[in-house]
Write a structure and sequence with these properties.
The protein has 74 residues and is mostly helical. The protein folds into 2 domains: 38 residues; 36 residues. It is built from 3 helices and no strands. It starts with a helix and ends in a 7-residue tail after the last helix.
């Protein structure tokens, strides 16, 4: 049992040290969101597309839960 607490303590210390390090390095919101980089337009377009597909799929699943499995075909 003591071994488990030791492993958990190491994980918590590692996560806190990374969080503190990143807090010091991040200066602006853009730094936080884009990690200080400028992604190419294709990457931005693909991210938007995947978000849109995921949202539509989530709504389709909710519709199927409400109206039954055959609603997925619509």
């Amino acid at each position: 049992m003591f071994q488990l607490y030791r492993v958990l303590a190491v994980i918590v210390v590692a996560l806190l040290s990374v969080a503190i390090d990143r807090t010091i390095r991040v200066k602006t919101k853009t730094d936080y969101l884009l990690v200080g980089r400028s992604p190419p337009p294709l990457t931005l377009a693909l991210a938007l597309l995947t978000s849109w597909i995921g949202a539509v799929r989530s709504l389709a699943v909710l519709n199927a839960c409400r109206n039954g499995f055959r609603a997925l075909w619509a």
